[in-house]
């Protein structure tokens, strides 16, 4: 080995042992430039009424402005000084010299990931009804607003209104605000921001077993639980489970039926034959 080569190796070893080299080894991201969209971890330094300051170590100090705190209210309410948090970079250096961050974007990414996992697993879980419109119910899961369509309500909660009056349906749906419904995720599309859930699909294993035991031409006994312009609902028991089925207006009688109320009344005991089992 030449003296020059030996000197080069010695210099490299000294450089590797220098305080600066040890600092880089301990913080490999220290010299990496931040870009919009990067996910960073830091410690909450200060919480102000309209902003939150985050220590990002060697990368600097981050700031979350009020609009992002409001959007991520579920996250912000639980944050305390000294807490470790994750955020998404909006601007690597704003006009004040801070790294502008978003709690909302970071928390939403995690929320969508959890919702997608629930969709894949078919998990059944409670969702609180936040509001109603004429098409269904508004729910909120993992900080994400979603929709439970009327068509995906269980037989118990389906708004049976004679004549299908939309205002009466809306009034019935509003009664569910504040309640918890067991649901399954049907659609979780983070790109479109679309979350759709179903109560009807959230059937217990016991109820699925009861339905599985029903075959075409099986005769059942029950009571009329509701009458609508397109038929009659009948509630009956099977395998210890309360089930409900629809007798379509076309199956109420041999002759033409104009008004189902002429052939049945709520509470009336009836016998019926199963024609098909769906959903």
Write the layout of secondary structure elements.
Elements lengths: L2 H14 L2 H8 L12 E10 L2 E5 L5 E5 H6 L1 H4 L7 E8 L7 E4 H19 L3 E9 L2 E6 L2 E6 L16 H9 L5 E10 L4 E5 L6 H8 L6 E10 L2 E8 L2 E8 L20 E5 L6
Parallel strand pairs: 3-5
Antiparallel strand pairs: 1-2, 1-4, 2-3, 4-5, 6-7, 6-9, 7-8, 9-10, 11-12, 11-14, 12-13
In short:
This protein is an alpha+beta fold and 279 residues long.
Question: Strand-residue fraction?
Answer: 35-45%
CATH structural fold name of the largest domain: OB fold (Dihydrolipoamide Acetyltransferase, E2P)
| Count of extended strands | 14
On the 0 to 100 scale, the average pLDDT is 82
Q: Walk across the major sheet and give the strand order.
A: 1-2-3-5-4
* Estimated radius of gyration: 30 Å
CATH architecture of the largest domain: Beta Barrel
Between the first and last Cα atoms, what is the distance in angstroms?
Answer: 80 Å
- The CATH class designation of the largest domain is Mainly Beta
Please tally the helical runs, counting DSSP H or I stretches of 4 or more residues: 7
Instruction: Give the overall silhouette.
Output: elongated
Describe the 3D structure:
The protein has helices at residues 3-16, 19-26, 66-71, 73-76, 103-121, 166-174, 205-212; strands spanning 39-48, 51-55, 61-65, 84-91, 99-102, 125-133, 136-141, 144-149, 180-189, 194-198, 219-228, 231-238, 241-248, 269-273. The chain has 279 residues and is an alpha+beta fold. The strands form three sheets. A five-stranded mixed barrel has the order 1-2-3-5-4. A hairpin with a 2-residue loop joins strand 7 (136-141) and strand 8. The longest helix is centred in the middle third of the chain and has 19 residues, at 103-121. The chain is elongated, with a radius of gyration of 30 Å. Residues 1-14 have low confidence and may be disordered.
């Amino acid at each position: 080995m030449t003296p020059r080569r030996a000197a080069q190796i010695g210099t490299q070893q000294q450089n590797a042992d220098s305080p600066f080299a040890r600092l880089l080894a301990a913080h490999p991201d220290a010299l990496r430039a931040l870009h919009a969209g990067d996910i960073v971890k830091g410690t909450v330094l200060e919480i102000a009424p309209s902003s939150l300051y985050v220590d990002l170590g060697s990368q600097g100090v981050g700031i979350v402005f009020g609009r992002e705190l409001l959007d991520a209210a579920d996250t912000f309410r639980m944050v305390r000084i000294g807490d470790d948090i994750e955020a998404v970079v909006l601007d690597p250096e704003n006009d004040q010299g801070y790294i502008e961050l978003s709690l909302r974007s970071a928390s939403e990414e995690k929320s969508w990931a959890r919702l997608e996992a629930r969709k894949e697993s078919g998990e059944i879980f409670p969702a609180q009804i936040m509001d109603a419109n004429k098409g269904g119910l508004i729910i909120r899961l993992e900080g994400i607003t979603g929709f439970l369509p009327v068509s995906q309500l269980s037989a118990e909660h389906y708004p049976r209104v004679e004549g299908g009056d939309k205002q009466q349906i809306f009034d019935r749906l509003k009664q569910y605000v504040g309640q918890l419904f067991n649901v399954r995720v049907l659609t979780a599309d983070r790109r479109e921001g679309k979350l759709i859930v179903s109560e009807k699909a959230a059937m217990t294993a016991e109820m699925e077993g009861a339905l599985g035991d029903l075959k075409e031409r099986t005769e059942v006994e029950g009571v009329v639980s509701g009458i609508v312009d397109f038929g009659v609902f009948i509630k009956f028991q099977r395998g210890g489970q309360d089930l409900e089925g629809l007798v379509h207006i076309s199956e109420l009688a041999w002759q033409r039926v104009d008004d189902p109320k002429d052939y049945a009344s709520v509470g009336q005991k009836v016998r019926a034959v199963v024609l098909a089992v769906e959903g």
